[in-house]
């Protein structure tokens, strides 16, 4: 019962992190804050996958002689590592784009940049 409650609390925290990042992307006007919000959201998704993968009774998938246990599936762990690397590279690419925008525009507010582009 205690373990189920802990998993539920961790899942709720991960989902709250995802929602916090999602609303940050929608509500923030500064481009750097949007990138940070996207990072918060991806961190929440990764945390949610970790909570799901860390079920009770499963062990790390390292095979040893004479031990027959229930192992966790290693594929989600590999997918999460790939997601972390891809997320980092996307973040770096977006920051380069923001740096190029900042050369042409005096502000990083998205509505100001859109207004300057339409005039």
TrEMBL record:
InterPro entries: CPA3_antiporter_subunitC, NUOK/Mnh_C1-like
Pfam families: Oxidored_q2 (PF00420)
Keyword match Ion transport: no
Subcellular location field: Cell membrane
Membrane topology: Multi-pass membrane protein
UniProt keyword annotations, A-Z: Cell membrane, Membrane, Transmembrane, Transmembrane helix
Transmembrane segments: 12-28, 40-58, 78-98
Superkingdom classification of source: Bacteria
NCBIfam families cross-referenced by the UniProt entry: PRK07375.1-5
Annotated family: Belongs to the CPA3 antiporters (TC 2.A.63) subunit C family.
PANTHER family from the UniProt entry: ANTIPORTER SUBUNIT MNHC2-RELATED
Protein name: Cation:proton antiporter subunit C
Taxonomic source organism: Trichocoleus desertorum GB2-A4
Record lineage: Bacteria, Bacillati, Cyanobacteriota, Cyanophyceae, Leptolyngbyales
């Amino acid at each position: 019962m205690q373990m189920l409650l802990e998993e539920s609390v961790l899942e709720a925290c991960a989902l709250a992190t995802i929602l916090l990042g999602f609303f940050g992307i929608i509500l923030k006007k500064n481009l750097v804050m949007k990138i940070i919000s996207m990072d918060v959201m991806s961190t929440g998704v990764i945390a949610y996958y970790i909570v799901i993968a860390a079920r009770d009774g499963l062990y790390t998938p390292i095979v040893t002689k004479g031990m027959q246990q229930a192992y966790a599936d290693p594929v989600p762990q590999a997918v999460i590592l790939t997601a972390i690397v891809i997320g980092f590279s996307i973040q770096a690419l977006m920051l380069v784009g923001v740096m190029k925008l900042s050369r042409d525009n005096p502000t990083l507010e998205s509505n100001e940049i859109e207004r300057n582009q339409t005039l």
